[in-house]
Amino acid sequence: MKAYKIPEATVMRLSIYSRFLHQLMLEGSETVSSGEIAEGVGVSSAQVRKDLAYFGEFGTRGVGYKVDELYGYIMKILGLDRQWNAIIIGAGKLGSALALYQGFADRGFNIKAVLDINPQIIGARLDGIEVEALGKLAERVKEQAINIGVITVPASVAQEVTDQLIQAGVKAILNFSPRILKVPQDVVLRNVDLSVNLEVLSFNLALNHR
Amino acid sequence: MKAYKIPEATVMRLSIYSRFLHQLMLEGSETVSSGEIAEGVGVSSAQVRKDLAYFGEFGTRGVGYKVDELYGYIMKILGLDRQWNAIIIGAGKLGSALALYQGFADRGFNIKAVLDINPQIIGARLDGIEVEALGKLAERVKEQAINIGVITVPASVAQEVTDQLIQAGVKAILNFSPRILKVPQDVVLRNVDLSVNLEVLSFNLALNHR
User: Fold this and answer.
1) ipTM score above 0.90
2) Helix A67-77, helix B194-207: angle, nearest 10
3) Residue B187's closest chain A neighbor by CA?
4) Which among A98, A131, B113, B119 could disulfide-bond with A91, CB atoms 3.0 to 4.6 Å apart, if both were Cys?
Protein backbone atom coordinates (compact mmCIF):
# COMPACT_ATOMS: atom_id res chain seq x y z
CA MET A 1 0.00 0.00 0.00
CA LYS A 2 1.07 3.56 -0.68
CA ALA A 3 2.12 5.92 2.11
CA TYR A 4 -1.02 8.08 1.66
CA LYS A 5 -2.33 7.33 5.14
CA ILE A 6 -5.81 8.35 6.24
CA PRO A 7 -7.34 6.95 9.44
CA GLU A 8 -9.91 4.27 8.78
CA ALA A 9 -12.46 6.12 10.93
CA THR A 10 -12.10 9.09 8.57
CA VAL A 11 -12.68 6.88 5.54
CA MET A 12 -15.83 5.50 7.19
CA ARG A 13 -17.10 9.00 7.93
CA LEU A 14 -16.36 10.12 4.35
CA SER A 15 -18.54 7.25 3.21
CA ILE A 16 -21.34 8.56 5.40
CA TYR A 17 -20.83 12.21 4.34
CA SER A 18 -21.14 11.11 0.71
CA ARG A 19 -24.59 9.63 1.38
CA PHE A 20 -25.72 12.83 3.03
CA LEU A 21 -24.37 14.94 0.14
CA HIS A 22 -26.15 12.68 -2.35
CA GLN A 23 -29.37 13.28 -0.46
CA LEU A 24 -28.76 17.08 -0.63
CA MET A 25 -28.17 16.82 -4.40
CA LEU A 26 -31.49 15.01 -4.83
CA GLU A 27 -33.14 17.81 -2.84
CA GLY A 28 -31.52 20.43 -5.11
CA SER A 29 -29.14 22.04 -2.57
CA GLU A 30 -26.12 23.75 -4.18
CA THR A 31 -23.94 24.63 -1.18
CA VAL A 32 -23.47 23.17 2.27
CA SER A 33 -21.49 24.21 5.35
CA SER A 34 -19.46 21.88 7.55
CA GLY A 35 -22.00 22.65 10.28
CA GLU A 36 -24.85 21.42 8.11
CA ILE A 37 -22.99 18.25 7.23
CA ALA A 38 -22.23 17.76 10.92
CA GLU A 39 -25.87 18.22 11.87
CA GLY A 40 -27.03 15.93 9.06
CA VAL A 41 -24.83 12.98 9.98
CA GLY A 42 -24.46 13.44 13.73
CA VAL A 43 -20.76 14.29 14.23
CA SER A 44 -19.17 17.58 15.36
CA SER A 45 -18.48 20.25 12.73
CA ALA A 46 -14.83 20.37 13.90
CA GLN A 47 -14.62 16.68 13.00
CA VAL A 48 -16.13 17.29 9.55
CA ARG A 49 -13.60 20.07 8.84
CA LYS A 50 -10.73 17.91 10.10
CA ASP A 51 -11.79 14.98 7.93
CA LEU A 52 -12.10 17.10 4.80
CA ALA A 53 -8.79 18.87 5.52
CA TYR A 54 -6.95 15.60 4.75
CA PHE A 55 -7.67 16.36 1.12
CA GLY A 56 -6.69 20.02 1.00
CA GLU A 57 -8.75 23.18 1.18
CA PHE A 58 -11.72 23.23 -1.12
CA GLY A 59 -14.47 24.96 0.79
CA THR A 60 -14.99 28.74 0.62
CA ARG A 61 -14.98 30.60 3.93
CA GLY A 62 -18.48 31.84 4.79
CA VAL A 63 -20.05 30.02 1.84
CA GLY A 64 -19.12 26.42 2.49
CA TYR A 65 -18.76 23.66 -0.03
CA LYS A 66 -20.36 23.19 -3.43
CA VAL A 67 -22.41 20.05 -2.87
CA ASP A 68 -21.81 18.37 -6.23
CA GLU A 69 -18.10 19.19 -6.21
CA LEU A 70 -17.56 17.85 -2.69
CA TYR A 71 -19.67 14.78 -3.44
CA GLY A 72 -17.71 14.02 -6.61
CA TYR A 73 -14.44 14.54 -4.79
CA ILE A 74 -15.32 12.23 -1.89
CA MET A 75 -16.65 9.56 -4.24
CA LYS A 76 -13.35 9.68 -6.12
CA ILE A 77 -11.34 9.47 -2.89
CA LEU A 78 -13.39 6.44 -1.85
CA GLY A 79 -12.81 4.78 -5.21
CA LEU A 80 -16.55 4.99 -5.92
CA ASP A 81 -16.21 6.84 -9.23
CA ARG A 82 -15.92 3.41 -10.82
CA GLN A 83 -17.43 -0.07 -10.52
CA TRP A 84 -15.91 -2.91 -8.49
CA ASN A 85 -16.57 -6.59 -9.06
CA ALA A 86 -17.01 -8.90 -6.10
CA ILE A 87 -17.31 -12.65 -5.60
CA ILE A 88 -19.00 -14.20 -2.56
CA ILE A 89 -17.54 -17.46 -1.24
CA GLY A 90 -20.16 -19.28 0.84
CA ALA A 91 -23.84 -19.18 -0.11
CA GLY A 92 -25.27 -19.92 3.33
CA LYS A 93 -27.77 -17.56 4.94
CA LEU A 94 -25.34 -14.68 5.33
CA GLY A 95 -23.76 -15.12 1.88
CA SER A 96 -27.22 -15.23 0.29
CA ALA A 97 -28.37 -12.12 2.14
CA LEU A 98 -25.25 -10.27 0.97
CA ALA A 99 -25.74 -11.45 -2.63
CA LEU A 100 -29.26 -10.01 -2.56
CA TYR A 101 -28.31 -6.81 -0.70
CA GLN A 102 -29.27 -3.89 -2.96
CA GLY A 103 -27.06 -1.47 -1.04
CA PHE A 104 -23.93 -2.92 -2.63
CA ALA A 105 -24.97 -2.33 -6.25
CA ASP A 106 -26.18 1.16 -5.34
CA ARG A 107 -22.60 2.10 -4.44
CA GLY A 108 -20.93 0.46 -7.44
CA PHE A 109 -20.18 -2.96 -5.99
CA ASN A 110 -21.38 -5.68 -8.33
CA ILE A 111 -21.70 -9.23 -7.07
CA LYS A 112 -20.55 -11.20 -10.11
CA ALA A 113 -20.43 -14.73 -8.71
CA VAL A 114 -21.41 -16.75 -5.63
CA LEU A 115 -19.68 -20.07 -4.91
CA ASP A 116 -20.29 -22.87 -2.41
CA ILE A 117 -19.26 -26.48 -1.83
CA ASN A 118 -22.70 -27.78 -0.79
CA PRO A 119 -24.30 -29.74 -3.68
CA GLN A 120 -27.72 -28.86 -2.26
CA ILE A 121 -27.02 -25.14 -2.67
CA ILE A 122 -25.10 -25.21 -5.97
CA GLY A 123 -27.49 -24.34 -8.79
CA ALA A 124 -29.80 -22.23 -6.61
CA ARG A 125 -30.56 -18.76 -7.98
CA LEU A 126 -30.08 -15.53 -5.99
CA ASP A 127 -31.79 -12.94 -8.15
CA GLY A 128 -29.78 -13.02 -11.37
CA ILE A 129 -26.87 -15.09 -10.02
CA GLU A 130 -26.59 -18.86 -9.95
CA VAL A 131 -24.64 -20.40 -7.08
CA GLU A 132 -21.73 -22.33 -8.56
CA ALA A 133 -19.20 -24.87 -7.30
CA LEU A 134 -16.12 -23.64 -5.41
CA GLY A 135 -13.98 -25.27 -8.10
CA LYS A 136 -14.97 -22.40 -10.44
CA LEU A 137 -13.12 -19.86 -8.26
CA ALA A 138 -10.03 -19.14 -10.37
CA GLU A 139 -12.04 -19.16 -13.60
CA ARG A 140 -14.69 -16.73 -12.33
CA VAL A 141 -12.14 -14.35 -10.76
CA LYS A 142 -10.32 -14.08 -14.09
CA GLU A 143 -13.34 -13.99 -16.39
CA GLN A 144 -15.29 -11.44 -14.28
CA ALA A 145 -12.24 -9.31 -13.39
CA ILE A 146 -13.02 -9.71 -9.68
CA ASN A 147 -11.50 -7.08 -7.36
CA ILE A 148 -13.03 -8.08 -4.04
CA GLY A 149 -13.56 -11.45 -2.39
CA VAL A 150 -16.26 -11.73 0.28
CA ILE A 151 -15.74 -14.61 2.74
CA THR A 152 -18.88 -16.06 4.33
CA VAL A 153 -17.67 -19.64 4.88
CA PRO A 154 -17.16 -21.32 8.29
CA ALA A 155 -14.01 -20.28 10.20
CA SER A 156 -12.41 -23.69 9.63
CA VAL A 157 -12.08 -23.17 5.86
CA ALA A 158 -11.81 -19.36 5.72
CA GLN A 159 -8.01 -19.22 5.35
CA GLU A 160 -8.06 -21.86 2.63
CA VAL A 161 -10.56 -20.02 0.41
CA THR A 162 -8.77 -16.72 1.09
CA ASP A 163 -5.51 -18.26 -0.13
CA GLN A 164 -7.30 -19.45 -3.27
CA LEU A 165 -8.72 -15.97 -3.92
CA ILE A 166 -5.32 -14.34 -3.47
CA GLN A 167 -3.66 -16.91 -5.71
CA ALA A 168 -6.30 -16.11 -8.34
CA GLY A 169 -5.29 -12.42 -8.14
CA VAL A 170 -7.86 -10.85 -5.76
CA LYS A 171 -6.37 -7.85 -3.90
CA ALA A 172 -9.14 -7.10 -1.38
CA ILE A 173 -10.89 -9.40 1.09
CA LEU A 174 -14.00 -8.69 3.14
CA ASN A 175 -14.04 -11.36 5.84
CA PHE A 176 -17.27 -12.23 7.64
CA SER A 177 -15.87 -15.36 9.29
CA PRO A 178 -14.70 -15.16 12.93
CA ARG A 179 -11.18 -16.10 11.87
CA ILE A 180 -8.19 -13.76 11.71
CA LEU A 181 -6.89 -14.25 8.20
CA LYS A 182 -3.31 -13.95 7.02
CA VAL A 183 -2.86 -12.04 3.78
CA PRO A 184 0.21 -10.66 1.96
CA GLN A 185 1.18 -6.96 2.36
CA ASP A 186 -0.34 -5.99 -0.99
CA VAL A 187 -3.79 -7.39 -0.16
CA VAL A 188 -6.32 -5.25 1.71
CA LEU A 189 -8.25 -7.11 4.40
CA ARG A 190 -11.29 -6.00 6.33
CA ASN A 191 -12.96 -8.08 9.01
CA VAL A 192 -16.66 -7.92 9.80
CA ASP A 193 -17.43 -10.37 12.57
CA LEU A 194 -21.10 -10.02 13.39
CA SER A 195 -20.81 -11.71 16.79
CA VAL A 196 -17.83 -9.56 17.74
CA ASN A 197 -20.04 -6.52 17.17
CA LEU A 198 -22.58 -7.88 19.62
CA GLU A 199 -19.78 -8.62 22.08
CA VAL A 200 -18.61 -5.01 22.03
CA LEU A 201 -22.16 -4.19 23.13
CA SER A 202 -22.29 -6.87 25.83
CA PHE A 203 -18.89 -5.70 27.11
CA ASN A 204 -20.34 -2.21 27.57
CA LEU A 205 -23.63 -3.47 28.99
CA ALA A 206 -21.74 -5.66 31.48
CA LEU A 207 -19.68 -2.63 32.58
CA ASN A 208 -22.87 -0.99 33.73
CA HIS A 209 -23.79 -4.05 35.80
CA ARG A 210 -20.49 -4.16 37.72
CA MET B 1 -21.06 4.61 30.98
CA LYS B 2 -18.42 4.02 33.64
CA ALA B 3 -14.88 5.37 33.35
CA TYR B 4 -13.38 1.87 32.93
CA LYS B 5 -12.06 2.59 29.43
CA ILE B 6 -10.66 -0.12 27.20
CA PRO B 7 -10.03 0.53 23.50
CA GLU B 8 -12.66 -1.01 21.28
CA ALA B 9 -9.97 -2.74 19.20
CA THR B 10 -8.84 -4.51 22.38
CA VAL B 11 -12.40 -5.64 23.13
CA MET B 12 -12.65 -7.02 19.60
CA ARG B 13 -9.37 -8.89 19.96
CA LEU B 14 -10.45 -10.29 23.35
CA SER B 15 -13.50 -11.67 21.60
CA ILE B 16 -11.23 -13.41 19.11
CA TYR B 17 -8.81 -14.67 21.80
CA SER B 18 -11.76 -16.23 23.60
CA ARG B 19 -12.68 -18.28 20.52
CA PHE B 20 -9.11 -19.52 20.21
CA LEU B 21 -8.98 -20.43 23.93
CA HIS B 22 -12.27 -22.28 23.60
CA GLN B 23 -10.77 -24.30 20.76
CA LEU B 24 -7.73 -25.12 22.96
CA MET B 25 -10.04 -26.27 25.77
CA LEU B 26 -11.82 -28.62 23.37
CA GLU B 27 -8.41 -29.98 22.36
CA GLY B 28 -7.50 -30.55 26.02
CA SER B 29 -4.71 -27.94 26.34
CA GLU B 30 -4.16 -26.74 29.92
CA THR B 31 -1.69 -23.87 29.50
CA VAL B 32 -0.95 -21.41 26.71
CA SER B 33 1.68 -18.71 26.19
CA SER B 34 1.04 -15.25 24.76
CA GLY B 35 3.17 -16.36 21.80
CA GLU B 36 0.88 -19.30 21.13
CA ILE B 37 -2.22 -17.11 21.35
CA ALA B 38 -0.54 -14.63 19.00
CA GLU B 39 0.32 -17.36 16.51
CA GLY B 40 -3.17 -18.85 16.75
CA VAL B 41 -5.06 -15.66 16.01
CA GLY B 42 -2.55 -13.79 13.87
CA VAL B 43 -1.53 -10.78 15.98
CA SER B 44 1.86 -10.04 17.61
CA SER B 45 2.62 -11.55 21.02
CA ALA B 46 3.44 -8.04 22.32
CA GLN B 47 -0.13 -7.05 21.38
CA VAL B 48 -1.58 -10.08 23.19
CA ARG B 49 0.37 -9.24 26.35
CA LYS B 50 -0.65 -5.59 26.13
CA ASP B 51 -4.33 -6.48 25.68
CA LEU B 52 -4.32 -8.88 28.63
CA ALA B 53 -2.40 -6.40 30.80
CA TYR B 54 -5.49 -4.16 30.88
CA PHE B 55 -6.95 -6.65 33.31
CA GLY B 56 -3.96 -7.11 35.60
CA GLU B 57 -1.27 -9.77 35.77
CA PHE B 58 -2.59 -13.27 35.69
CA GLY B 59 -0.11 -15.26 33.63
CA THR B 60 2.90 -17.00 35.20
CA ARG B 61 6.30 -16.09 33.77
CA GLY B 62 7.75 -18.99 31.76
CA VAL B 63 4.56 -21.04 32.08
CA GLY B 64 1.94 -18.79 30.49
CA TYR B 65 -1.75 -18.74 31.19
CA LYS B 66 -4.08 -21.46 32.42
CA VAL B 67 -6.40 -21.87 29.44
CA ASP B 68 -9.67 -22.36 31.32
CA GLU B 69 -8.91 -19.55 33.78
CA LEU B 70 -8.03 -17.06 31.04
CA TYR B 71 -11.04 -18.12 28.96
CA GLY B 72 -13.41 -17.68 31.90
CA TYR B 73 -11.90 -14.34 32.73
CA ILE B 74 -12.20 -12.98 29.18
CA MET B 75 -15.76 -14.26 28.84
CA LYS B 76 -16.65 -12.43 32.04
CA ILE B 77 -14.96 -9.22 30.85
CA LEU B 78 -16.92 -9.47 27.59
CA GLY B 79 -20.17 -9.97 29.48
CA LEU B 80 -20.48 -13.45 27.96
CA ASP B 81 -20.79 -15.29 31.27
CA ARG B 82 -24.53 -14.63 30.95
CA GLN B 83 -27.26 -14.59 28.31
CA TRP B 84 -28.44 -11.46 26.47
CA ASN B 85 -31.80 -11.03 24.81
CA ALA B 86 -32.06 -9.27 21.48
CA ILE B 87 -34.86 -8.05 19.25
CA ILE B 88 -34.46 -7.52 15.50
CA ILE B 89 -36.37 -4.64 13.92
CA GLY B 90 -36.74 -5.25 10.20
CA ALA B 91 -37.27 -8.75 8.80
CA GLY B 92 -35.95 -8.12 5.29
CA LYS B 93 -33.13 -10.20 3.85
CA LEU B 94 -30.51 -8.96 6.28
CA GLY B 95 -32.79 -9.11 9.34
CA SER B 96 -33.84 -12.65 8.43
CA ALA B 97 -30.25 -13.77 7.92
CA LEU B 98 -29.34 -12.36 11.33
CA ALA B 99 -32.35 -14.01 12.99
CA LEU B 100 -31.20 -17.36 11.61
CA TYR B 101 -27.49 -16.82 12.34
CA GLN B 102 -26.39 -19.62 14.68
CA GLY B 103 -23.24 -17.73 15.71
CA PHE B 104 -25.28 -15.40 17.93
CA ALA B 105 -26.87 -18.10 20.08
CA ASP B 106 -23.49 -19.85 20.36
CA ARG B 107 -22.14 -16.80 22.20
CA GLY B 108 -25.14 -16.24 24.46
CA PHE B 109 -27.16 -13.81 22.32
CA ASN B 110 -30.74 -14.98 22.01
CA ILE B 111 -32.96 -13.48 19.35
CA LYS B 112 -36.28 -13.26 21.19
CA ALA B 113 -38.41 -11.35 18.67
CA VAL B 114 -38.34 -10.07 15.08
CA LEU B 115 -40.63 -7.21 14.03
CA ASP B 116 -41.53 -5.64 10.69
CA ILE B 117 -44.15 -3.33 9.20
CA ASN B 118 -44.69 -5.25 5.95
CA PRO B 119 -47.96 -7.25 6.13
CA GLN B 120 -46.52 -9.73 3.62
CA ILE B 121 -43.67 -10.57 6.01
CA ILE B 122 -45.57 -10.47 9.32
CA GLY B 123 -46.50 -14.01 10.31
CA ALA B 124 -43.56 -15.63 8.48
CA ARG B 125 -41.48 -18.02 10.57
CA LEU B 126 -37.70 -17.79 10.98
CA ASP B 127 -36.79 -21.06 12.67
CA GLY B 128 -38.65 -20.84 15.97
CA ILE B 129 -39.55 -17.14 15.75
CA GLU B 130 -42.60 -15.62 14.15
CA VAL B 131 -42.22 -12.18 12.56
CA GLU B 132 -44.62 -9.81 14.35
CA ALA B 133 -45.94 -6.31 13.74
CA LEU B 134 -43.80 -3.32 14.74
CA GLY B 135 -46.63 -2.26 17.06
CA LYS B 136 -45.59 -5.08 19.41
CA LEU B 137 -42.24 -3.40 20.13
CA ALA B 138 -42.78 -2.08 23.66
CA GLU B 139 -44.68 -5.20 24.72
CA ARG B 140 -42.00 -7.61 23.46
CA VAL B 141 -39.10 -5.58 24.93
CA LYS B 142 -40.71 -5.70 28.36
CA GLU B 143 -41.98 -9.26 28.26
CA GLN B 144 -38.74 -10.76 26.88
CA ALA B 145 -36.43 -8.55 28.99
CA ILE B 146 -34.67 -7.35 25.82
CA ASN B 147 -31.17 -5.91 26.29
CA ILE B 148 -30.13 -5.32 22.69
CA GLY B 149 -32.01 -3.88 19.72
CA VAL B 150 -30.77 -4.79 16.24
CA ILE B 151 -31.75 -2.28 13.53
CA THR B 152 -32.08 -3.65 9.99
CA VAL B 153 -34.70 -1.21 8.67
CA PRO B 154 -34.15 1.33 5.84
CA ALA B 155 -32.15 4.45 6.79
CA SER B 156 -35.25 6.64 6.53
CA VAL B 157 -36.96 5.01 9.53
CA ALA B 158 -33.90 3.92 11.52
CA GLN B 159 -33.93 6.83 13.97
CA GLU B 160 -37.64 6.41 14.61
CA VAL B 161 -37.43 2.71 15.57
CA THR B 162 -34.29 3.42 17.62
CA ASP B 163 -36.19 6.05 19.59
CA GLN B 164 -38.97 3.54 20.19
CA LEU B 165 -36.50 0.92 21.43
CA ILE B 166 -34.85 3.38 23.80
CA GLN B 167 -38.20 4.56 25.09
CA ALA B 168 -39.08 0.93 25.77
CA GLY B 169 -35.90 0.63 27.88
CA VAL B 170 -33.31 -0.91 25.53
CA LYS B 171 -29.75 0.16 26.46
CA ALA B 172 -27.76 -1.22 23.52
CA ILE B 173 -28.30 -0.76 19.79
CA LEU B 174 -26.60 -2.61 16.95
CA ASN B 175 -27.28 -0.53 13.85
CA PHE B 176 -27.02 -2.08 10.39
CA SER B 177 -28.65 0.87 8.61
CA PRO B 178 -26.40 3.44 6.87
CA ARG B 179 -27.71 6.16 9.15
CA ILE B 180 -25.82 7.79 12.02
CA LEU B 181 -28.18 7.41 14.95
CA LYS B 182 -28.56 9.71 17.91
CA VAL B 183 -28.79 7.97 21.27
CA PRO B 184 -28.64 9.21 24.88
CA GLN B 185 -25.34 8.95 26.84
CA ASP B 186 -26.47 5.86 28.73
CA VAL B 187 -27.20 3.86 25.58
CA VAL B 188 -24.43 1.90 23.84
CA LEU B 189 -24.48 2.16 20.05
CA ARG B 190 -22.52 0.17 17.53
CA ASN B 191 -22.76 0.71 13.79
CA VAL B 192 -22.24 -2.02 11.23
CA ASP B 193 -22.68 -0.56 7.77
CA LEU B 194 -22.00 -3.33 5.32
CA SER B 195 -21.46 -0.97 2.37
CA VAL B 196 -19.08 1.20 4.38
CA ASN B 197 -16.94 -1.88 4.91
CA LEU B 198 -16.72 -2.41 1.17
CA GLU B 199 -15.90 1.28 0.74
CA VAL B 200 -12.92 1.04 3.07
CA LEU B 201 -11.69 -1.67 0.70
CA SER B 202 -12.37 0.34 -2.46
CA PHE B 203 -10.61 3.34 -0.90
CA ASN B 204 -7.51 1.20 -0.43
CA LEU B 205 -7.81 -0.46 -3.84
CA ALA B 206 -8.18 2.96 -5.49
CA LEU B 207 -4.99 4.17 -3.73
CA ASN B 208 -3.05 1.49 -5.56
CA HIS B 209 -4.44 2.64 -8.90
CA ARG B 210 -3.38 6.28 -8.46
Assistant:
1) no
2) 80
3) A205
4) A131
